[in-house]
Amino acid sequence: MGVGRVVTRYAVVVLLVAFVVGYAIKAGIERTAQYEAVGFFQFNPGAQKVVEEAKKLGMDPIEYYMTYIAPKDHPELRMNLLHIGLRYMKASILELREEKDRTPTYRTLLLILLSELVITLTALFLAFKGIERPRVYSILQVTARTFNGIPVWFFVVLFFMAIIYSPLPSELVNGLKGTGASTLPYFVFPVLSVLLVGVWGLAEGMAVIMREEFSQPYVEAKRAMGLPEGRVRKGVLRAVAVPLMYLWLQHFVEVQTPVLVVDYLFNLGGLGQLLGRSLIITPDNVNFYPMTFTFVVTVLIVLNFSASIAAEVLSNIIEPREGP
Amino acid sequence: MKRKVGAIILIIFFLITSLAYATLDRVKLENWDNYLFWVAYPRGAKPVWLDGGVDTITFRGGTNYTVFDGAPKNVVLRGEGEVTMNILRPDGKEVTLTGKISGEDSLNSNTGLALDAIRFAINELSFRSEDRALFSPTRMLFSGEDKEPLRGTYRITVSPGDVEVTIVGSNYGLLGTDYKGRDLWVGFVGSTVNTLTLAFLTMLFVILFGLLLGVSSGYYETRFGEIASVILEALNSLPYLPLAVIVIFLISYTGAYGRRELGTFKLTVVLALLLVGKFAGAVKGIVMHEKREEYVEAARALGAGDLEIIRKHIIRAVIPYTLSYATLLFSQMIAVVSILGLFGIIPGVNWGSFVAEAFKQSAVYSLWWWPLSPSVAIILVSVGLTLLSDSSSG
């Protein structure tokens, strides 16, 4: 595919996200400025002067306020949507310099890392079993389709019940406590939840790719030569490394949704909880916190972009069918 | 065989859901987010099929009601005008309550009925005026002189006879109530219908947009096709959950009871646009493969135009895949809708918001059947769809 193509793709992603974020931010700021305008014309002694000035220009006083006065406090009102979005995205990434802002990112990264490690190893194991036994392969196909329609909260509910109604410590569902390695037990059930949702599709995909490779004549030839099965498998894995990596990459992007949900429900204090806190809807009010929201989205985009670039570079290095 | 089992599971599920929805009290569903509406209902009630609680019964005219261990929580009346309620208690004492009701009212909230009950409790039992802070009028009415629930059978008569009376115990309805008094069966059925409708419509739009994007980007290897391909790849790389949250927030507005309001059409189109990438990419792959087939080349040599080739040859190759993928897509959309509902962004009650509310009210600790009910439903639908698509997937 090429690094250039990845950069183009993510440029489109960034522009799209920047546009949407910019629209949301500008709409919020416009609303705030309108409230301020009402306050200005009610209480500010200089309001009469502004009304006269607006009259001279044939403008409504509120329109005059929004055009000439509000942008002094809210420079975003003079910017286009893309500019606002990109500015907030840049600012949110700069926030990572602060330790308190890094913690949610670290926690989510840890959850993704642990989940991906467990999922990838389990998927590989299941895929090999699926290649060995057709029955396992057909079970994999059925489970992949079934679990594809089950949202991750289903497993969270089951694990919550299992924890609450068993001798397991209930604090495992009450949010992450402690620091360092002591927090690891809190990740066990979140990782299991993500695993149960994400492993089947990946295992089936891996099995499909590897089955085709295992049916190649060179594999039979290697076996006929008496090479141990482990070495044959290693060779096959090396041959399909690139398609497997692209399959994994797509899975990596998709698994972030269950990770955010699990983080949100298990109170892990990661990006999922930040996302939940960025938009709070109550019967009386709706509060949108653009910087928090932009932070979550930007971190995910940077993560996906880095993974895609790494995959491209790696694929150029490990592609076995090319070279001198 | 598997297909038949899948079809049977789905048919039974959809029949029960349709029947439940058809017989559902729409007023309750419309007032799901209006907490004032549920004031008269018991809070945290168990379902009627769970033992060990106080029964809830509904009647007109008269009935016998037996108290075992606990007193009922409230007496709800539905009707218009002056109502008289006569109760002959197991201790032989008789009490008559009168009050004026309009629509739905209850013994605990109707001034006339409540005052009569309190007056009886103070005059005939050992209650004091201060006890009103600790005991509801209903609780007083069903208590003995020791202020404990008075066991035995009560003869209750209500006139006029067309007034519908519900004695609300600690067990209520098929799924009990939440800690705001809401009938969970109403929420469950409403959320099931809402989730399935949204998922189905989103699936239709994903297929429609996916076919358009996939066929055009796969067939035309021009600058347009290239741009469409980049857009498809970008859509596949989007963190769709946060983006869907913000886009739906932007195009929706706050309606009654702080609910987010958004037309079903708009909502499903937006969701489909965000989720179309994967399907469109697969269609593009099929189209690119198919257009190099010999029979397509032959049709082109015979003078067939692009539209004719797409209509007669390409679409015919894409349709079987689309049909097979539709069942997969439908269950995927159910998961998507319920995950977005979890973040409170999908208008109306749905499986996600239903479960989110259970988490908010810490219902997993006590009302386990609440979060479990949509979980069971989702498993049934998912297994049914998987089995149904079994032969088509091959």
Describe the structure.
The complex is a heterodimer of chains A (324) and B (394). Chain A is an all-alpha fold. Chain A has 13 helices and two strands. Chain A has a two-stranded antiparallel sheet with strand order 1-2. The longest helix of chain A is centred in the N-terminal third of the chain and has 41 residues, at 3-43. The radius of gyration of chain A is 27 Å and the shape is elongated. Chain A starts with a helix and ends in a 6-residue tail after the last helix. Chain B has helices at residues 2-22, 26-30, 111-124, 137-141, 184-219, 223-237, 240-251, 264-275, 277-290, 294-301, 306-342, 351-360, 369-388, 390-393; strands at residues 57-60, 62-67, 74-88, 94-106, 152-159, 164-168, 253-254, 260-261. In chain B, the strands form two sheets. In chain B, strands 1, 2, 3, 4, 5 and 6 form a six-stranded antiparallel β-sheet that branches. A two-stranded antiparallel ribbon of chain B has the order 7-8. In chain B, a hairpin with a 5-residue loop joins strand 3 and strand 4 (94-106). Chain B is elongated. The mean pLDDT of chain B is 89. At the A-B interface, helix 1, helix 6, helix 7, helix 11 and helix 13 of A face helix 6, helix 7, helix 11, helix 12 and helix 13 of B.
